[in-house]
Amino acid sequence: MGGGAGEKPVLIRWEERDGQKVAVRHDGRLAAQLRPIRMEVGVLSNADGSALVEYGGTRVLAAVYGPREAHPRHMALPDRAVIRCRYHMAPFSTAERKTPAPTRREVELSKVIREALEAVVLTELFPRTAIDVYMEVLQSDGGTRTAAITAASLALADAGIAMRDLVAGVAVGKVDGVLVLDIDEIEDNYAEADMPVAMAPNLGRVLLLQLNGVLAHDEFVQAMELARKGIQTIYKLQKEALRRKYVEVVQEGDEQ
Ligand code: ADP
Fold it and tell me: Which residues, in sequence order, are CB contacts of 131 under 8 Å at separation 6+?
């Protein structure tokens, strides 16, 4: 919820379709519709694992290094790997240049994303090592933290790091009284509420949940259900992206 400046744009139009009144969003989406989502795994050659994820105009690149020797050494833990996360918005990712230095928002988001990933990575398999997860927002149009988690979990899988489940995220919100899935920046700016959610769908665990603004209890329950369904779809796309990479690798092997 950014508290948009200037005159409020029309974000919801009510249209009659098949005798029903339906809410249509400013970009033509229905309330429970995701933006076009694109994912690609293994997009960087230096990193052990990487992924590029797009939710509409939001574009995030994730790179994973490790498990590798932890530096400085005193950071290492005797019984498990440490996960270090950096969520960062590139200075060119927003219309107005963002300061390249990490802001308090980025430091906090790095921490909550780390906590979400720690819940799925089998860190106990890699004692005394570090796993570095870098998430760079290349273009921001709302929902960057959730797209970053989705990308990070794909990059961890691409690095071959054992996990209990993938993590997928999406932000839901309340715009002009309507609960909507996958809010973009303009909706976020004028929303009555916005709620980023990340889950490990197969484990049935909620790994990140933040609510800005106000929802009635019933709306909160509906918003969680909307998020859960969106996350199921994103989860399928993640598995497909990993499968595509695997098929490519197998084909390359066959050609040799
Ligand atoms: P999220 O990206 O996870 O939704 P926020 O709710 O904090 O996080 O931000 C919503 C949107 O506002 C971002 O996706 C981005 O488009 C924009 N935004 C956030 N921080 C900045 C910033 N420092 N400069 C310009 N735009 C920003």
Answer: 64, 65, 66, 67, 68, 81, 82, 83, 84, 121, 123, 156, 161
For residue 41, list its beta bridge partners.
51
- In 3D space, the residue among 137, 143, 139, 215 whose CA is nearest the CA of residue 179 turns out to be 215
Residue 121 phi, psi (nearest 5): -75, 135
Q: For position 248, what pLDDT does the model report? A: 80
Question: Could you tell me the two tokens for 224?
Answer: 């969680």
Say what the pTM is: 0.95
Q: What is the dihedral of CA 21, 221, 152, 89, to 10 degrees?
A: 70
Residue 52 pairs in a beta bridge with 40, 61
Q: What is the largest CA-CA distance in the chain?
A: 67
**Is the CB of residue 68 less than 8 Å from the CB of residue 56?**
no
Helices (H), 125-216: 144-158, 185-190
In terms of CATH, what superfamily is 12-255?
GHMP Kinase, N-terminal domain (3.30.230.70)
* Per-residue model confidence (pLDDT) at position 2: 54
Residues at CB less than 6 angstroms from ligand 1: 2, 94, 96, 98, 140-145, 171, 185, 188, 196
- Please report which helix (H) or strand (E) contains residue 107, including its range: helix 104-118
CA–CA gap between residue 24 and residue 102 (Å, rounded): 37
Amino acid 75 reads M
- Please name every residue paired with 38 in a beta bridge, in sequence order, or none if there are none: 54
Q: Which of 150, 188, 210 to mutate to test the pocket of ligand 1 (most atoms within 8 A of CB)?
A: 188
Give the tens place of pLDDT for each residue, 92-102: 999 999 999 99
